[in-house]
Amino acid sequence: MQNSVIAYPRIGALRELKFAIEKYFKKESSKDELFHTAKELRKVHWQAQKNAQIDFISCNDFSFYDNVLDTAALFNVVAKRYKALNLEPLDEYFAMARGYQGANGDTTALAMKKWFNTNYHYLVPECDDATLIKLNATKILSEYDEAKALGIEPKVALTGLFTFYKLINFADEATKTQAKAKLIEAYGLLLDTLNQKGVKWVQFDEPYLVYDLSASDIALFKEIYTAVLAQKAGLKILVQTYFGDVRDIYETLCSLNFDGIGLDFIEGKESLNLIKKGYLADKLLFAGLVNGKNIYKNNYAKTLNLLGEIQKFAKNVVLNTSCSLLHSPYTIKNEQKLDKKYLAHFAFAEQKLDELRELKEIAQSANYKDNVLYKNNVALFENKPNRDNKKVQERVENLQDKDYKRLPEFKERQKIQKEVLNLPLLPTTTIGSFPQTPDVRSNRLAFKQAKINAAQYTEFNQVKIKECIKLQEEIGLDVLVHGEFERNDMVEYFGESLEGFLFTQNGWVQSYGTRCVKPPVVWGDVARTKPMTVSWSEFAQKQSDKIVKGMLTGPVTILNWSFPREDISLRESTLQIALAIRDEVLDLEKAGIKIVQIDEAALREKLPLRKSDWHSEYLSWAIPAFNLVHSGVRADTQIHTHMCYSEFNDIIKEIDAMDADVISFEASRSNLELLDALKAAKFQTEVGPGVYDIHSPRVPSVSELESTIRKILDKLPKEQIWINPDCGLKTRGYKEVVESLKNMVEATKNARKSL
């Protein structure tokens, strides 16, 4: 038996890649220095897999920003606006990722979207000239050589042609048709090149196959791979799927000339049933049995039972991760503070390598139940401490239908709020956070390390809040925020204030590019024991006659951006969190806060990939969980929410059913495509489509913003529109923030003149 890893985290155990790239962005280091850091990280990551006796190790899973973007660079799928900048390849690559504003021109970044059902984000390639498509295999070949020099024969991994083609934003149908032929040719040439290099295995990642597929999708896949596989010669080709099952295309996969098929047995509900229909003996089955998305140790008893079932139908099984390990933190070795009784239950990416090695050893034992590794694992799962809170459980059990319904109805509330709040048309605001400058982070760290007392910590933040309020007043914003200087992260902050959460020191996971998050761990039942934000909001409101929003993170996002429990349902865990946030909302209202924003940035994240499962497995409880949070407030308290980085067009009606008073969306990177869906659905909630992209350092001009606002006004009634950036400003610098917000306010004032 062999084992395999689909892909490995690239950020490093201590986020070394993040810091190296950011130094390059700031022109504090050279390209050569960045490349050196990257090479050293790859060496460490490959060596870790080699030491763990992994049989199939990937190369080309490393990326400076995103693997889909890497594939675009590999085949020169680059929009003409980036080519016009005349930048060297690395800077062209980063221009696509971050936008560019400098001596060579001014252009926005590629759109960014959620990577299937994860908290990772990919860059959406743009193709407006298919004639540019050509192979540049330098990165793949050099990284293959690096691995070979370490004594590793890696499989070369890249985004499969079908998934890549489906993710590209084409200028028109003619370009799309031409690109298909060019990409088939380029992928075939890549296989020729890899053959000449002596590569043995190529892994084509095809996660798009777990979606609902039409007959035309299946025909396209067959057409593409019949042509590409004709060029494989001596290469062995693995088609790797993950995040679900391939029920719509399983027979086609088996019929094509693949040498291995990778199936997810963690999230793939039908994967076992599929192989029961038959699996060809000459194909390796890469069985995803080690969860690449969680942080908990593998339950060997369950896994080996499942493996036994799989082996009844598949002759040659390779133990595999369920997906890339980039969705898991790097290693538990850098966790010194977490109690060992909890840490014993965790397995990050590096430890999952050990699990693959141990499972292989146990599975090959004459009687695996006598194996000491197996016995130790079984014993571990017999005791999980400190998980239950009976009061919380009873509170969830006693919820009634009326608890999820806010009264009066939206239209009546809207009239009351417009009178009470007295805001102008097109009210301007921000999403919540302001830049987290080094002194802010230092103050928070000093308090955490007990170098300063609570009074000193509070005084510093209050000074920052005063400065932030004054700045917003000077800029001319209509509805203000306190800046969130007390918060390390929009989820971790609340987790630290609630019972039932655990926290890591270095459990960082890549979200996009250099942005990493450190998700809390939902370990037990969740309860609120004291107010979490009230004092900060109360203080901020006293600094201005303008309205200052209370800022909270919603229960679905807290759950989705944490590592959830696996011993109770996601529904139950989310309702526990919702009740805690509900208590906070009511306390904010009592404190005189007139607008409360409850962010649900990650609402779509755990939406099942198959539409048939949307309501039964997710929306039927996720939407009510949000309703529960705000259903108890008065009619004159305005409830806002915010959503980002997702496609919402197909769940617009469900979002409207959240019954918020105002919803702000990330819409700038997607060219406001959402507006058509809002209009078509007769969306009643007031909306703030993000008018500029905060994930890029470029500053939008007044005329650019005016044009965007006019586009919004063409689609939606003026009474329904709010003007705001597309997300929080935490990661940006003050210079670009102030310039951008001033331009946004000026553009809004100009737009009002024509109303």
Strand-residue fraction?
Answer: 5-15%
Count, helices: 28
Spatial ordering of strands, largest sheet: 1-14-13-12-11-10-8-2
The largest β sheet comes out as: 8 strands, parallel
CATH topology category name of the largest domain: TIM Barrel
Total number of β-strand segments?
A: 23
**CATH domain class of the largest domain:** Alpha Beta
What helical percentage do the residues reach?
40-55%
Question: What is the CATH-assigned architecture of the largest domain?
Answer: Alpha-Beta Barrel
Domain unit count: 2
Structural class: alpha/beta
Kindly, what is the distance between the CA atoms of the first and last residues, rounded to a whole number of angstroms?
71 Å
Radius of gyration (Å): 26 Å
- The shape, in one word, is globular
Fold topology:
Blueprint: E1 2-4, H1 16-25, H2 31-51, E2 58-59, H3 67-74, H4 80-83, H5 89-98, E3 100-102, E4 105-107, E5 112-114, E6 121-123, E7 126-127, H6 138-149, E8 155-159, H7 161-167, E9 169-170, H8 173-197, E10 201-205, H9 215-229, E11 236-240, H10 250-255, E12 260-264, H11 271-276, E13 284-290, H12 300-311, E14 317-321, H13 340-343, H14 349-363, H15 372-380, H16 390-397, H17 410-421, H18 438-448, H19 454-475, H20 492-496, E15 498-502, E16 509-512, E17 515-517, E18 521-528, H21 534-541, E19 550-553, H22 555-560, H23 570-590, E20 595-599, H24 614-630, E21 638-643, H25 652-656, E22 662-665, H26 674-680, E23 686-689, H27 702-715, H28 734-753
Parallel strand pairs: 1-14, 2-8, 7-9, 8-10, 10-11, 11-12, 12-13, 13-14, 19-20, 20-21, 21-22, 22-23
Antiparallel strand pairs: 3-4, 5-6, 15-18, 16-17
